[in-house]
Amino acid sequence: MSQSLIHARELTKKFGDFTAVNGINFDVVKGESFGLLGPNGAGKSTAMRMIGATSQRTSGDLTILDKDPDLFGPQIRAHLGVVPQQDNLDTHLSVTDNLYIYGRYFGLSRKFLKGKIEELLTFAQLEEKRNAKVESLSGGMKRRLTIARALVSEPEILMLDEPTTGLDPQARHILWDRLFRLKEDGVTLLITTHFMDEAEQLCDRLVVMDKGAIMAEGSPAQLIKDYSTKEVLEVRFGSERNAHMADDLRQLCDRIEELPDRILMYTEDGEELLERVYKKGFHPKTSLVRRSSLEDVFLRLTGRTLID
Amino acid sequence: MSSLQTRQGSLKIVDAARVAARGALFVTEARLRAMVKWVWLIISIAIANPVLYLVSIGLGLGSYIDKNTGAMGVDGVSYLTFLAPALLATAAIQGAMDESVYPTLEGFKWNKTFFSMNATPLSGNQIAMGVFFNSLIRTIFTAVIYWLVMLAFGVLESPRAWLAIFTAVMAGAAFGAFMQALAGFLENENVFFTIVERFIIMPLFLFSGTFYPLTNMPIFLQWIGWISPLWHATELGRWLTYGSEISTPMLLLHFIFLNSILIFGLIASRRIFTKRLGK
Ligand SMILES: Nc1ncnc2c1ncn2[C@@H]1O[C@H](COP(=O)(O)OP(=O)(O)O)[C@@H](O)[C@H]1O
Ligand SMILES: [Mg+2]
Fold first, then answer.
1. A184 and chain B in contact, CB less than 8 A
2. Quick check: A123 contacting B, CB < 8 Å?
3. Residues B72-112: pLDDT tens digits?
4. Are residues B127 and B19 in contact, defined by beta-carbon separation less than 8 angstroms?
5. CA of B194, closest CA in chain A: separation in Å?
6. Ligand 1 contact, A48 CB (< 6 A)
7. Could you tell me if B232 and B257 are in contact, meaning their C-beta atoms sit under 8 angstroms apart?
8. What is the nearest CA distance from A74 to chain B, expressed in angstroms?
9. A10 CA: distance to closest CA in chain B (Å)
């Protein structure tokens, strides 16, 4: 088997005239955690469904575990664990039964599943909910169950489509913790998200997607280095004044971005820049110096924010 | 502690060939696990349905009609004997529909479980067949109970009457497979309920020689019976339960028609499921 578990070249998906995924190229190697970062509608889920060997590509090359999904769908899916964007648990069944039937879909024996289910209930912190109906679970619990379900077959690749969207901060952190453990166990992760902090936390390497295309690729740190400055100074002058302050501020640094509620100033040294802003006689209502994030990378690449 | 210490990896533990061979049964197994939760409802419906129909029609409408038709009865037998095979086939069809239409709408749309199944080595074909097998189990169960109630009501006159279970199941299977395909095809379930139920299923029930021989209908309405699995199954059922007169070519025709619809329904279901899941 070659190094890359997933290999995509000019991968394209059209729905009628509309191109949802437009000729994307990437490779995912064994043991790494790879991310697709992009706003809603970027084509992440569509790409995931093609990689998951369920949705047929319109054109381009795609191999997963060295096999073409058009020809070997079931054989590929036998080694994937899929967590779709929307939970699709069997609402008629209990927590345990959901894990059990899913294991059966992989042809696993009852005996094997008995032990496996216990392990997964612990992993997902759902021991007390083992007999609960799926409907009675909270959003975070459902998400953890969906992830546990995807792990029942000990997949080579775990694919997570927006694993924490809709979860409260505490539930997100529990989930991230579980995903770290999987990574430590050597599971290859493919993750989509529109949260830049999630991408920074979880991904070794990622591609930034927008409108079906890949805008940039690299590790979070490399992307920030390539497409942004070290620090960002955020200043607010109040919404009506921001616009006309922007022109004056532009002279003070390499690059600025105007957002409806604030102005972002890109620089290597935020404090120093803030001093210069004051020296020029500008007095922002509030100011904040922070490190650049993937959000800034996205803004640079597309001129838009990730979450609108 | 909760790390997956025992991990062997799917390359070791998952046998795709095993799923390729038996996948449809795994789908059926999953649904049966859910069905046992409302098994009492299924049993109650299966018993109450024939008892209520046979009592109300047997004692009410039947005796009224028998009084007026005299010794000749309808088609040479009491009205209840004439009607019962049609009701048997209707019940089988209803049982089949319940277990094919709802799970299909649910699996594609309401809780999207078909998409979760399809993310495993299961194929669209296997999911379609798994749903069909479930509906077949429900149909056989419904038909057997109905037949036993008919036996208790004394409307089974011929020694080969037990074969009517098979013809009723055949009708259920054919209709169920066809409706499963349709439910998978019509992505908007409202269309299914408003148009299909009212303008296809109801007329087929009313115009299939259910309550009186099809030949009593004006000729320009008889075609509805001809395309209806219910009529074909009813004709076979009448021949089997009380020995109604029927020619061998017609027997064959009924048999071939039902099986053609069944085969068509299954092929269509498999194609439609595969296509819709692969979008
Ligand atoms: N089955 C479909 N039919 C038509 N358009 C679709 C379908 N699925 C997705 N799209 C469109 O493709 C685009 C990308 O969608 P999606 O892959 O879900 O994006 P993301 O997951 O990044 O939010 C969207 O504009 C969406 O409306
Ligand atoms: Mg999505």
1. yes
2. yes
3. 788 889 999 999 999 999 999 999 999 999 999 999 999 99
4. no
5. 26
6. no
7. yes
8. 4
9. 19
Using CB atoms, which residue from B4, B19, B278 is nearest to A55? Answer: B278
Rounded to the nearest whole angstrom, what is the distance from the C-alpha of residue A11 to the centroid of ligand 1? 15
Query: How far is it, in rounded angstroms, from Cα A160 to Cα A82?
Result: 6
* Nearest Cα residue to B25 out of B108, B105, B136: B136
The answer to ipTM > 0.95 is: no
Out of A11, A13, A14, A15, give the residue to mutate to test ligand 1, the one with the largest number of ligand atoms within 8 Å of its CB. A15
Which of A88, A104, A125 shows the shortest C-beta gap to B116?
A: A88
Question: Residue A2: pLDDT band by 50, 70, 90 thresholds?
Answer: low
Which residue type occupies B97? Answer: M
CB contact under 8 A, B113 and A107: no
Give residue A79's Cα distance to chain centre: 21
Among A236-240, B130-134, B247-251, name the one with the lowest average pLDDT: A236-240
Q: Is the CB of A262 within 6 Å of ligand 1? A: no
pLDDT for B2: 44
Helix (H, G, I), strand (E, B) or coil at A232: strand
* Cβ neighbours of B112 in A, within 8 Å: 86, 88
Q: What tokens does A160 get? A: 């997570």
Cα B78 versus chain centre, distance: 27
Residue found by looking up tokens 């790390």 in the block: B3
pLDDT at res. B5: 57
**Whole-number Cα distances in Å, A22 to A28, A63, A162, A209, B235:** 18, 17, 20, 10, 58
pLDDT tens string B224-242: 899 999 999 999 999 999 9
Q: What is the CA radius of gyration of chain A?
A: 22
At residue B185, the pLDDT reads 95
Nearest to B178 by CA among B274, B104, B277, B278: B104
Q: How big is the CA angle at A41 (ends A16 and B279), to the nearest 5 degrees?
A: 40
Cα A85 to ligand 2 centroid, rounded to whole Å: 6
Domain positions in chain B are 24-277
Do the strands A188-193 and A286-291 form a parallel or antiparallel pair, or are they unpaired? unpaired
Number of H helices, E strands in chain A: 11, 13
State whether A107 and B34 contact (CB < 8 Å). Answer: no
Q: Tell me the per-residue pLDDT of B104-145, one tens digit each, with 9 for 90 and over.
A: 999 999 999 999 999 999 999 999 999 999 999 999 999 999
Which chain B residue is nearest to residue A158, measuring alpha carbons? B10
Inform me whether the pLDDT recorded for B266 exceeds 70.
yes
pLDDT tens readout for residues B15-51: 999 999 999 999 999 999 999 999 999 999 999 999 9
Full set of structural domains in chain A with CATH: 4-217 (3.40.50.300), 229-291 (3.30.70)
Helix or strand run (H / E) with residue A13: strand A4-15
CB atoms under 10 Å from CB of A256, counted, come to 20
